[in-house]
């Protein structure tokens, strides 16, 4: 008996199943996504889900997972799926009765991707003829919730227990307030949402529950430390969290690249400045790099010793979410130039009287590894393709930690969040 993963993507669900001790068979069309899955050791059939026959899976499917493409519905796109929604509802109703009207309905859609949200019903109808699958897990952007409610009504007629609603990934330890419409259904257990493990403000254990930890911050997830500070800061020559990791002023490189440079040459002039918080660790870490003796004292020119607070801006649009590193990220989505995700810095009050100001660093692109970690993939995950292709995959993926919380009850296993500890 297999677990079928429709629109499998780069492996969010697959990664969760691997941690839980199982594997899925993924159907996926995108070339670079398939290469990522192959590098990660995941079973994949490269195909168009809308054209692939259902009969190979009938009589052998235990669970069905589906995360249809969200571009037609997402706030990051034109959202033509909302206009096509009546057509998608019609397709779902027809497919649930074994009537394939997709070609006619597709011709009327404003976005041809809209109808992909009806594809899971084609597979579910075929599998239901033999009493399969045992369980179902569907995921999409919040605007698809009315469609999931239609699925729920149909699945209940077929004997499933069903729950559907919107969950916030941050409530399950993901360092990102990513909200998604979820449907969970089962023939053998009562379907219900997983119990949240985190919340915005710490909840102590009480008679009413086990308590919940504070949302995981970006700083904590990325290993930048100083999560106990209200707003982790960086000095000239220092990195997020106030440590000695340096960054280049005005660089368009990633913050991860900047942290590996070892020095910051501020404008104007060519002198190299040392963070006041570096201490003796600078020499051990960076030697004599940066045109300054490793054992030289820190420079004390307060005009260049400004402190900066780092935040992550989710895109280039006017309504972009901007969060300090002491909080979870907003929803990460890529795939369009306007959706470039960047680190931005703002001056914090200087600790001593300042005689001048230094330029605020320009926005720095988020690195693929950083975005991967904020999605709870390992830092070593083998993303394939160029930067644009990698970011598109990361933004469209289901966070594996959230997927693990959703799948564990269906599989009859206990989820240990420590098993999702992110690799360096």
From TrEMBL:
Question: Which Pfam families did the record assign?
Answer: DNA_methylase (PF00145)
Q: What class of enzyme is it?
A: transferase
State the species of origin: Streptomyces zagrosensis
User: Which GO molecular function terms does the record list?
Assistant: DNA (cytosine-5-)-methyltransferase activity; DNA binding
Q: Which family does it belong to?
A: Belongs to the class I-like SAM-binding methyltransferase superfamily. C5-methyltransferase family.
Task: Please give a single GO biological process term from the UniProt record.
Answer: negative regulation of gene expression via chromosomal CpG island methylation
Which EC number applies? Answer: 2.1.1.37
Please spell out the taxonomic lineage of the organism that makes this protein.
Bacteria, Bacillati, Actinomycetota, Actinomycetes, Kitasatosporales
Record protein name field: DNA (cytosine-5-)-methyltransferase
Which positions are catalytic residues? 70
UniProt key word Chloroplast: no
Q: Which UniProt keywords apply?
A: Methyltransferase, Restriction system, S-adenosyl-L-methionine, Transferase
Question: PANTHER family from the entry?
Answer: CYTOSINE-SPECIFIC METHYLTRANSFERASE, DNA (CYTOSINE-5)-METHYLTRANSFERASE 1
Gene3D superfamilies for the chain: DNA Methylase, subunit A, domain 2 (3.90.120.10), Vaccinia Virus protein VP39 (3.40.50.150)
């Amino acid at each position: 008996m297999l677990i079928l993963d429709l629109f499998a993507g780069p492996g969010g669900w697959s990664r969760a199943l691997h941690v839980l001790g199982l594997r899925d068979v993924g159907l996926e069309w995108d070339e670079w996504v398939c290469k990522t899955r192959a590098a990660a050791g995941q079973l994949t059939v490269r195909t168009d889900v809308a054209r692939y026959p259902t009969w190979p899976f009938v009589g052998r499917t235990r669970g069905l997972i589906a995360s249809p493409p969200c571009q037609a519905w997402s706030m990051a796109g034109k959202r033509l799926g909302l206009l096509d929604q009546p057509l998608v509802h019609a397709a779902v109703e027809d497919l649930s009765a074994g009537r394939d009207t997709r070609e006619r309905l597709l011709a009327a859609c404003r976005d041809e991707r809209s109808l992909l949200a009806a594809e899971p019903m084609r597979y579910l109808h075929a599998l239901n003829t033999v009493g399969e699958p045992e369980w179902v897990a569907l995921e999409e952007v919040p605007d698809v919730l009315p469609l999931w409610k239609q699925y729920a009504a149909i699945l209940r007629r077929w004997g499933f227990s069903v729950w559907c609603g919107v969950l916030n990934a941050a409530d399950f330890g993901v360092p990102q307030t990513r909200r998604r419409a979820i449907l969970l259904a089962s023939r053998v257990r009562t379907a219900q949402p997983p119990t949240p493990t985190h919340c915005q403000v710490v909840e102590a254990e009480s008679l009413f529950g086990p308590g919940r930890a504070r949302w995981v911050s970006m700083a904590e997830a990325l290993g930048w430390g100083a999560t106990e500070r209200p707003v982790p800061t960086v000095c000239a020559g220092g990195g997020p969290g106030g440590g000695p990791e340096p960054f280049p002023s005005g660089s368009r490189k990633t913050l991860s690249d900047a942290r590996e440079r070892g020095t910051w040459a501020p404008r104007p002039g060519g002198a190299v400045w040392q963070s006041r918080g570096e201490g003796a660790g600078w020499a051990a870490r960076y030697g004599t790099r940066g045109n300054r003796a490793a054992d030289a004292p820190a420079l004390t020119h307060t005009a260049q010793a400004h402190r900066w607070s780092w935040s992550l801006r989710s895109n280039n649009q006017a309504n972009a979410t901007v969060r300090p590193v002491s909080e979870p990220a907003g929803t990460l989505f890529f795939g369009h130039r306007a959706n470039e995700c960047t680190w931005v810095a703002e001056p914090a009050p200087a600790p001593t009287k300042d005689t001048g100001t230094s330029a605020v660093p320009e926005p720095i692109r988020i690195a693929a590894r950083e975005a991967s970690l904020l999605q709870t993939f390992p830092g070593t995950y083998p993303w394939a393709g160029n930067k644009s292709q990698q970011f598109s995959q990361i933004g469209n993926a289901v966070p594996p930690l959230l997927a693990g919380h959703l799948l564990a009850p269906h599989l009859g296993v206990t989820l240990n969040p420590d098993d999702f500890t992110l690799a360096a």
